[in-house]
Design a protein that fits this description.
single chain, alpha/beta, Rossmann fold, 7-stranded parallel β-sheet, NAD(P)-bd_dom_sf, Glyoxylate/hydroxypyruvate reductase A, oxidoreductase, D-isomer_DH_NAD-bd
């Protein structure tokens, strides 16, 4: 850190900066903390904590040493056409956010494996019918995206006895998980999985990936869970696949746009569960701890982590 640049700027569109300021102040009591719109000297800002920052804002900070994302993704920062090239963009990654994603995924798989969706329908019908418990080892789970979140989810499922497969851009080696990569690998994995979980980042290659072609490649009646990005999903293709029975059910946590429009048919679809982007919650305490650890690392001459890849987009 330079002698002049020794403050942090909160630049979070649509967020109240005060709770974050309070948590950061408790974690970093010696750091000056400002919010966008306040009176501050741009030359004093060494760090920026961002969520969809105002385009061009970060370029006005000559002493900027690191850009901290308030989420695991960095696409909302890369969208800035004037983004400075030098500072590393640090993704939000914390043991608690990894655990949150793992728990959400495990919940979804257990929900459908134990046919809780069927039991709920039977309850509304006052229908008492036994539901045979299936052999979980024969119900394969496929995870799209084997980064830190995907790996945590895969390990949580293997620990419960599920057969887990995973697909990523490049080869991965995760104990107990059969890994696939590239277009050929995806084509090999899809026909085998009963539950497909998307934890992919937002890139040009992943936009629209969850489409009619992908759904057709899954076994009939497969379940789809989208925890990646809303624009990964072609909504009309999923609705058609649900209508035909090719997809048996879906749980959706992310949407394009958000909030989901009131007239979306997903709200009332009997085979769709909706959650309001709660797969993980980078709350103020988690963010403050992650930022604090990285500022301490940087003060010792170490690089922050994990740093997003600007070229790959995540």
């Amino acid at each position: 850190m330079t002698n002049q640049a020794n403050a942090l700027l909160i630049a979070a569109t649509g967020e109240d900066p005060e709770p974050y300021r309070q948590d950061l102040a408790r974690r970093l009591p010696d750091l000056a903390i400002h919010a966008e719109g306040e009176d501050y000297d741009p030359a004093t800002i060494a760090y920026a904590l961002c969520w969809k920052p105002t385009p061009g804002l970060l370029a006005t900070l000559p002493g900027l040493e690191a850009i901290f994302s308030m989420g695991a993704g960095i696409d909302h920062i890369l969208a800035d056409p004037e983004l400075p090239v030098a500072p590393p963009i640090v993704r939000l990654m914390h043991d608690r956010t990894r655990d949150q994603i793992r728990d959400y995924v495990v919940h979804c798989v257990l929900h459908y494996y134990r046919q809780m969706d069927v039991a709920a329908r039977q309850q509304t019908e006052k229908s008492w019918k036994f539901l045979q418990i299936r052999d979980k080892s024969q119900l394969k789970v496929g995870i799209l995206g084997l980064g830190e979140m995907g790996t945590a989810a895969a390990q949580g499922l293997t620990a419960l006895g599920f057969t887990v497969m995973g697909w990523a851009r490049s080869p991965k080696n995760i104990a107990g998980v059969t890994s696939f990569h590239g277009a050929d690998g995806l084509a090999q994995m899809l026909p085998q999985v009963s539950y497909l979980i998307s934890l992919l980042p937002a890139t040009d290659e992943t936009v629209g990936l969850l489409d009619a072609k992908l759904f057709a490649a899954l076994p009939r009646g497969a379940v789809v869970v989208n925890l990646g990005r809303g624009n990964h999903l072609i909504a009309d293709d999923l609705l058609a696949a649900l209508h035909s029975g090719q997809i048996g059910a879906a749980t959706l946590d992310v949407f394009a746009p958000e909030p989901m429009p009131q007239d979306s048919p997903f709200w009332t679809h009997p085979n769709v569960r909706i959650t309001p982007h709660i797969g993980s919650d980078g709350n103020g305490q988690i963010i403050a701890d992650a930022v604090g650890l990285n500022i301490e690392r940087m003060s010792r001459g170490l690089a922050p982590e994990p740093v997003g890849d600007r070229n790959r987009g995540y």
